[in-house]
Write a structure and sequence with these properties.
This protein has 102 residues and is mainly α. The protein contains three helices and no strands. The N and C termini lie far apart (94 Å). Residues 7-27 have a biased composition (Acidic residues).
Length: 102
C-alpha cells in the first residue's frame, strides 16, 4: 500500500515543473513522519502510548500554568506600580484642593 503511494508520487514528479518540487519534498517529509509514527505505534503497546500522551498533556498544562503565573505576576507588578503613582497623584490633588479652599 505504501509502495503504491510512493510510486504515485514519483509519477507526479516527472509530470510537474521544477517549481513544485519543494512542495512535493514537503509531502515526502510528511509521509516519512507518518510512516515513522505508524512504526512507533506498531511497536509500542497501547498502554505506553496512552502514558506518553498523558505525559505530553501534563507537560503542556504545566508550561501553560507557568506562563499564566508569570503573566499574572507581571500584571500585578505593573498594576502595583501604577496604583502607587495614581494614589500619590490623588493625594497631591487633595492637598491642592485644601490650599485652594484656604
Amino acid at each position: 500500500m505504501m509502495m503504491m503511494m510512493m510510486n504515485d508520487d514519483d509519477d507526479d514528479d516527472d509530470d510537474d515543473d521544477d517549481d513544485d518540487d519543494d512542495v512535493e519534498d514537503d509531502d515526502d517529509d510528511i509521509m516519512m513522519m507518518m510512516m515513522m509514527l505508524k512504526m512507533m505505534m506498531m511497536t509500542m503497546d497501547d498502554n505506553i502510548m496512552i502514558m506518553m500522551m498523558m505525559m505530553m498533556m501534563m507537560m503542556m498544562m504545566m508550561m501553560m500554568m507557568m506562563l499564566m503565573t508569570m503573566l499574572k505576576m507581571m500584571m500585578m507588578m505593573m498594576t502595583m506600580d501604577d496604583d502607587a503613582e495614581d494614589d500619590d497623584d490623588d493625594d497631591d490633588d487633595a492637598e491642592d484642593d485644601d490650599d485652594d479652599d484656604g
